[in-house]
């Protein structure tokens, strides 16, 4: 069978109509899915941005908290040193240094315990941190307050050497004992929790990124792939509309000349023969006038089917007029083309057409491309002359261009 579409029947036309309706539904569904996917991608992208921003914020906030907690250790040593300098040397500057350091240490403790946000951030204590600050055995909040109390009391002792000694001793023991260990533990816990919070946010960011990538993959598989397939189907249908005869499915006149001229040129380059069969239905107007155009269409479709069945894959069959057909036979000389034409004529004559089982005949003109032919139209013109010679001789016959009289 020739490499062309099967003739288009009414049933196929209805199938095309149903397919078009299904396509419209598919397009609407794909459009909705595409918009939904884009919305989801936008939401996920925003979520990734928010998570990243939150990670940066958490790291900054945690860094500030850890910095204050670490500074408490330094402040403990600073308060102790200032206290020693003041009690031993009585320097006025040492007393002011002690007062400033104690004030800063007390304020930092209020921030670290979540009772104050004076440093621009609010600490929310976890259960572990709450235990370190307010529960035994550490009770760091009490230890800091006790240390601050003795430092402030030291400032108020005046010249009482005994009280100074007592307060200073308590401060020195705390700075090298429970207070220092408690502050170290608080710093370690703050660092641990900060790391866990950031890691948790990073895990969430990874999950969102995976969902985003899966969404993109699903969009490509379930939306873009069907969309591309639909575009390809539409392109194929447009190509069929542009190149095929709607009634028979054969090549139309314009496409026949495109393909035929290409084959004509190839035959010339390869020095191969190339022949044409040009035929039309005898008394076709009478069929339409007597039985109606629907029956006439049945006859045209039936003849097109026979032409398809009797041609090779390399042959080019087309409907070039209302009841006129042409078949280009590459690598075929005039005698071989005459055999094909006669076989075709007999098959068309013998076949019944339509529900009325009508019979029809065709007249055929045959021409082989000659050296004098400039293009395919020249060969077709000689086949047309032969066709009309066949009609003048009584129809239902085949005439070769070489046998037709010169015009």
From TrEMBL:
<keyword id="KW-0812">Transmembrane</keyword>
<feature type="transmembrane region" description="Helical">
    <location>
        <begin position="32"/>
        <end position="52"/>
    </location>
</feature>
<dbReference type="GO" id="GO:0052621">
    <property type="term" value="F:diguanylate cyclase activity"/>
</dbReference>
<dbReference type="Pfam" id="PF00990">
    <property type="entry name" value="GGDEF"/>
</dbReference>
<feature type="transmembrane region" description="Helical">
    <location>
        <begin position="207"/>
        <end position="228"/>
    </location>
</feature>
<dbReference type="InterPro" id="IPR029787">
    <property type="entry name" value="Nucleotide_cyclase"/>
</dbReference>
<protein>
    <recommendedName>
        <fullName>diguanylate cyclase</fullName>
        <ecNumber>2.7.7.65</ecNumber>
    </recommendedName>
</protein>
<keyword id="KW-0472">Membrane</keyword>
<keyword id="KW-0548">Nucleotidyltransferase</keyword>
<dbReference type="InterPro" id="IPR050469">
    <property type="entry name" value="Diguanylate_Cyclase"/>
</dbReference>
<keyword id="KW-0808">Transferase</keyword>
<dbReference type="InterPro" id="IPR043128">
    <property type="entry name" value="Rev_trsase/Diguanyl_cyclase"/>
</dbReference>
<keyword id="KW-1133">Transmembrane helix</keyword>
<feature type="domain" description="GGDEF">
    <location>
        <begin position="272"/>
        <end position="403"/>
    </location>
</feature>
<dbReference type="InterPro" id="IPR000160">
    <property type="entry name" value="GGDEF_dom"/>
</dbReference>
